[in-house]
Amino acid sequence: MTSAATRTTRGVPLKPLELARAAVDTASDKQATDIVLLDVQPATSFTDYLVIMSAGSQRQLVAVADDVEYALKQKGVTPHHREGSADSGWVLLDYVDVVIHVFSEEQRDFYRLEQIWKQAKPLVRIQ
User: Fold this and answer.
1) Which of 10, 64, 97, 122 has the highest local Cβ count within 10 Å?
2) Percent of the chain with pLDDT over 70
3) Does position 5 have pLDDT exceeding 90, yes or no?
4) Per-residue pLDDT averaged across 38-54, rounded?
5) Would you say residue 127 has pLDDT above 90?
6) Total structural domains in the chain?
7) pLDDT value at position 14?
8) SS3 per residue for the chain
9) Which residues form the domain of 50?
10) Are 77 and 95 spatial neighbours (Cβ–Cβ below 8 Å)?
11) How far apart are CA 27 and CA 63, in angstroms?
């Protein structure tokens, strides 16, 4: 699924998998835990990749989400939509063809997205 939005890095289009991997790298640098990159293309038409991660505190949840958004913005990519908050325990960054979920550990256990998308192909897992 290729979004209509223009995504560029110095004039070169940023592919969805590159965007997802950049999010994983930034989250890892910010000490997010249990980071998973899933290829959901065979299972859904609304996005290509899901990036799911946990943060140990509300402060870290906000820092990870903000830093991922900033790092991708430096590559010329802005989210189509952002929702959630530290208080809710879940921040979602929607880049259309890549959807990034930053969870508190409690909310991640509650929603169990990996179980919902168990037919997806895991590409990266950093514990």
Assistant:
1) 64
2) 91
3) no
4) 95
5) no
6) 1
7) 86
8) CCCCCCCEECCEECCHHHHHHHHHHHHHHCCCEEEEEEECCCCCCCCCEEEEEEECCHHHHHHHHHHHHHHHHHCCCCCCEEEEECCCCEEEEECCCEEEEEEEHHHHHHHCHHHHCCCCEEEEEEC
9) 13-126
10) yes
11) 9
pTM given for the model: 0.90
Q: How far is Cα 94 from Cα 50, in angstroms, rounded to an integer?
A: 10
Instruction: 78-86: list long-range contacts, CB under 8 Å, 24+ apart.
Output: 80/3, 80/5, 86/58, 86/59, 86/61, 86/62
**What is the C-alpha end-to-end distance of the chain, expressed in Å?**
28
The enclosing domain of 18 has a CATH number of: 3.30.460.10
Task: Characterize the bridge pairing of strands 12-13 and 8-9.
Answer: antiparallel
* Residue for token pair 């980071």: 35
Asked if the structure places residue 3 within a domain, the reply is no
> For 102-126, how does the pLDDT look when each residue is reduced to its tens digit (9 = 90+)?
999 999 999 999 999 999 999 999 9
